[in-house]
Design brief:
In chain A, 44% of the residues lie in helices and 18% in strands. With 371 residues, chain A is of the alpha/beta class. In chain A, helix 4 links the parallel strand 1 and strand 2 (82-86). Chain A is globular. Mean pLDDT of chain A is 87; it is low at 32-49. Classes of the chains: A alpha/beta (371), B mainly alpha (312). Chain A binds chain B through residues 91-94, 96, 189-190, 228-233, 236-237, 240-241, 243-246, 358-360, 362-363, 366-367, 369-371, and chain B through 86-87, 90-91, 145, 148-149, 152-155, 170, 172, 174-175, 253-254, 257-261, 266, 269, 271-277.
Chain lengths: 371, 312
């Protein structure tokens, strides 16, 4: 009895942990059980391994595969730190719950920058360490105190080309004009981007949008309501409502619009005009288990254009680093929301405004749409 | 407790007490701390379940209830907001209305299905069983999107109706209250079919034969003998379905087109999307109170069915 079997168990476990089949923390737990009598050195090794893990929480589905392929695996090769992907969906409430538990199990969250900003002001998010994370590799205006820009998507108009192919819509005014463009519409259930669309349609100049005149936006949306077939809550729903012909026009995420454009064989098309650019970001939960520095180093690693290219190819996300734009093959540039050609037609959502006002605005919006 | 006693009912009380190893001094009698010994025994059997429910349900719920009076500041402020919030009132009314409709439809449909399942020919029984169980095993999401494929403008139903020349333009069948009711009813039917079938199996065939022998028509046997004998099964199924349907989240969210916001989604909104835990907690507590009051008033009628005393 010299612990050979236990050692072998540990080796199997360690190999699994290396390959990411089990998490490092689970590894330590199992190791502690197996190695109750194992040599001290072995246990110390296991404990050290436990430090080398980050849990990154995103919105699930294909994102898990993409984040792992683009960022997780290369980061592991460079640093030996395993990055586990968790698709739970880091809503503001879920992040709050993590922090308030006192022992968060999450390190990095793929959060809306405005959520990160508002949670950061409440002391739940680590400030981004711009000594480690290179701000110059981000588009100007998209590096915040508590969130680092990692990708972009837009709320854009998709339309039924069978109906409007001859004279496609040119902007939000056309989207809200059901006389010239008859048919049903679909809008986003959680408000973001929809207020701006309504105000642009109502004639507000693009540089005069913020602070948003919510009353005016809600009146515009309420007037359109008889022609709104649905308020979609997730990407799959937004695709479905167009493919099924339930809506002839919808405001949806550009990532989904690209898929529709490719898969519908020209039946559904999109425009970038007056699209609303929404930044995605990574944030680090305060007192994260994997350590702040490791998390910041991971964020820094995501600015590599080659890695961002993988994210664009797998998910259609617009790259945070402007250097990536040129790497995208020219026939695919029309799908990049932040390609200079597309960027100039659009307007970026004002994250500081959202961090202050989103909760109350969403409340009022819910009242309008469910009345 | 009643079920336990009912199980003993066929025996004379003294004999029952005897079987429990008690002296037969007075009927059903040994008391410990003033409580019937049989009840203590019953409690012992139920205790693990009670403990489990307390740990996983009551304790967390007390925590949620505590948020409703402490976040963001102590007091009943969230309940004042709740009472004055027209959104909450309209969502609650819609939830109760939709759930009552869905419950009635599901129980009616499940009754017919369970009838065939229990009393049909061998093949009818097999086929019904498959038709109940197969959808039951398919995920909620898949079924919701499946209904969209059937009900949407270019969906199966509208395409067929248009091809048959019955309608000119597509009917609006999804993304509204109708779609929600269809989807939820489909989800809930198996949950009513199981208790209804067990209530129907408990019906003594001889009673039906007796009614037949006395010259009652088949319709009359159904209305005056069979239905009353399964009545508590119907009420029990209705109560289970109603409570269950109140918590529905995905189905209404997908088939309702985002406009038919239901209570559980409102709680989600306040807990996750625009976090205001105090208000979300107050909505949860209010929902539990509303359900509790409704169930409390129905309990007397539903109790026999819920406790498995069947229709006897």
């Amino acid at each position: 009895m010299n612990g050979a079997f236990e050692k072998d168990c540990l080796e199997i476990l360690a190999a699994k942990a290396e390959r990411g089949e089990i998490s490092r923390r689970r590894f330590t737990q199992l190791a502690a059980v197996v190695a109750a009598g194992a040599p001290l050195a072995l246990r110390a090794g296991a404990a050290r391994a436990a430090d080398k893990q980050l849990v990154m929480v995103n919105w699930g589905g294909d994102a898990i595969k993409a984040y792992d392929a683009a960022y997780g695996q290369p980061f592991f090769k460079e640093t030996g730190i395993v990055v586990k992907q968790d698709g739970t969906g880091p809503t503001e409430g879920a992040i709050t719950a993590q922090f308030k538990s006192g022992k968060p199990t999450w390190d990095l969250v793929d959060a809306d920058p405005f959520s990160a900003i508002s949670l950061g002001k409440q002391g739940m998010i680590e400030p981004i360490d711009y000594k480690i994370v290179d701000k110059s590799k981000m588009r100007p205006g998209f590096g915040w105190d508590y969130a680092a820009s990692t990708y972009f998507f837009s709320y854009i108009i998709v339309y039924d080309a069978q109906k409007f192919g001859a004279s496609p819509p040119k902007g939000m005014a056309d989207f809200f004009d059901v006389k010239t463009f008859p048919g049903k519409r679909s809008l986003y259930k959680w408000g973001a981007g929809m207020w701006e669309a309504a105000l642009l349609a109502d004639g507000v100049a693009r540089d005069k949008l913020y602070p948003l005149d919510l009353k005016r936006a809600h009146d515009k949306i309420a007037a359109l309501k008889p022609d709104i077939v649905s308020f979609w809550g997730g990407g799959a729903e937004s695709q479905q409502v167009m493919l099924s012909g339930d809506a002839s026009m919808a405001l949806i995420w550009s990532t989904r619009a690209s898929i529709l454009d490719r898969d519908s064989k020209g039946q559904i098309k999109f425009i970038w005009d007056q699209g609303l650019i929404s930044p995605g970001a990574l944030a680090v939960i305060k007192n994260n288990p994997g350590g702040t520095e490791a998390a910041m180093r991971f964020i820094a690693s995501t600015s590599d254009p080659q890695k961002q290219l993988i994210m664009f190819q797998m998910l259609g996300q617009g790259p945070a680093n402007p250097a990536t734009d040129a790497l995208i093959p020219s026939d695919q540039r029309k799908f990049n929301p932040v390609d200079p050609e597309n960027f100039k037609k659009q307007i970026a959502l004002d994250m500081p405004w959202y961090s202050e006002n989103y909760g109350a605005a969403l409340d009022a919006y819910t009242k309008v749409i469910s009345a | 407790m009643r079920a336990w006693r009912a199980a003993l009912a066929p025996f004379p009380a003294a004999e029952a007490a005897d079987r429990l190893g008690a002296s037969a001094a007075s009927p059903g009698s040994v008391h410990i701390l003033g409580v019937d010994r049989a009840k203590w025994a019953a409690l012992l059997f139920v205790a693990p379940l009670l403990l489990f429910l307390i740990v996983v349900y009551v304790v967390p719920f007390v925590g949620v209830a505590a948020w409703s009076v402490t976040l963001p500041s102590p007091g009943l402020g969230q309940y004042q907001r709740l009472a004055g919030d027209p959104l909450v009132a309209s969502v609650f009314l819609r939830t109760l209305r939709v759930c009552a409709t869905v419950t009635a439809l599901s129980v009616a449909a499940a009754y017919a299905i369970a009838y065939v399942w229990v009393r049909g020919t061998r093949w009818q029984r097999r086929l019904t069983e498959l038709c109940i169980l197969i959808p039951f095993w398919i995920s909620v999401l898949t079924r919701a999107f499946g209904w969209l494929a059937v009900l949407s403008n270019r969906g199966l139903l509208n395409t067929w109706l248009e091809a048959a020349g019955l309608i000119d333009g597509p009917l609006q069948l999804a993304h509204n209250g109708f779609g929600v009711v269809v989807g939820m009813t489909h989800m809930l039917i198996p949950f009513a079919a199981f208790p209804l079938a067990s209530a129907m199996r408990a019906v003594d065939e001889r009673v039906l034969l007796a009614a037949r022998g006395l010259g009652a028509s088949r319709l009359r046997i159904f209305w005056q003998v069979f239905l009353p004998m399964t009545r508590s099964g119907v009420i029990g199924a209705a109560v289970i379905l109603f409570v269950f349907s109140l918590g529905f989240f995905i189905t209404p969210a997908i088939l309702g087109g985002g406009r038919s916001v239901m209570a559980s989604e409102l709680v989600y909104l306040r807990m996750f999307q625009s976090p205001d835990w105090g208000f979300g907690a107050a909505i949860s507590v209010a929902l539990v109170v509303v359900v509790g009051v409704l169930l409390g008033s129905l309990y007397r009628y539903a109790k026999p069915a819920l406790l498995g005393e069947g229709g006897r």
